[in-house]
Amino acid sequence: MAQNQEQILNNFKQQKRNGKLSQAYLFIDAKNDQQALIKKIVDILSDNQDTSEDYYNVFNLEVEEGKKIISVDQVRNLMEEFQNKTKVVKIAIIHEAEKLNPSSSNALLKFIETPDENQIIIFIAKSESSVLSTIRSRTQIVVLPSTSKEELQASLVNDGVSVEEAELLSKVVSDLDAAKELQVDGWFFNLKNALTHFSNLLSSKSYSAFYEVEKSLVPLFDNTRAYVINQVFVEILKDNLIVNTPILDITLRELKKINFNVPLQVIYESIALKGASHD
């Protein structure tokens, strides 16, 4: 029987308390829409509290731009981060684990089989069968639940959220609790408005977009919500018909820097400058 989000989180908390955590997990995220849940699980595994520095001991590995697979060199570079023992929990997250080929998978085997007690590796894939058996057989498999966007939108509207805001929320989170959390103190509403204004300045190639980052966006920036912030911005660009343009290409390239712990302010200021100067 499939578990819901609350059950999954409670199971991880219990495993943590009892010292029964696995050191290798395979998360099945069929719709690639459970980033918020994965972040909560990672927080449990790493003892992260909001902006604790432990958050920055999470290392993400994904397919490089223009490539089709995760290469052996990428894996080896990641493993270098885990060579030294540490008292702080370090977590490696392998996105699109189905893109690991036999060579890059084999490069991970020693790490999976003999990790330090404070090291955890998480593989994320859309299906169990798409991951090589050498990985599957060495991991604890966790199937993450999926909620349809339509169901989430209907629940939000029933709770009094506007249709427009419910639609945007359903594009960046996948469960009602996560959506409600984003609405506390009007944070999501203010973020949507600030990013919409920023988007309008970008579309007019105005350099004032650079100053708008510190004025309106920085007060709303939260490293623990970086994925949500970036996804909201991309959806706003699309809704404003800023597609197939240099602005969207620039934005998508710059947003990838979040995986290397580049601050949100630096990323968005770079988007502002490059967006205003593009031909």
Mind explaining what this structure looks like?
It contains 13 helices and 5 strands. It has 279 residues and is an alpha/beta fold. It has 2 domains: 139 residues, Rossmann fold (3-Layer(aba) Sandwich); 129 residues, no CATH class. Strand 2, helix 3 and strand 3 form a beta-alpha-beta unit. Helix 6 packs across helix 7, helix 10 runs antiparallel to helix 13 and helix 11 packs antiparallel against helix 12. About 3% of the residues have low confidence.
Beta-strand percent range: 5-15%
> Mind telling me which CATH architecture of the largest domain this is?
3-Layer(aba) Sandwich
The overall average pLDDT, rounded, is 85
Q: Count the strands? A: 5
Distance between the termini: 54 Å
pLDDT < 50 stretches: 49-55
**N-to-C order of helices and strands:** HEHEHEHEHEHHHHHHHH
Strand order of the largest sheet: 2-3-4-1-5
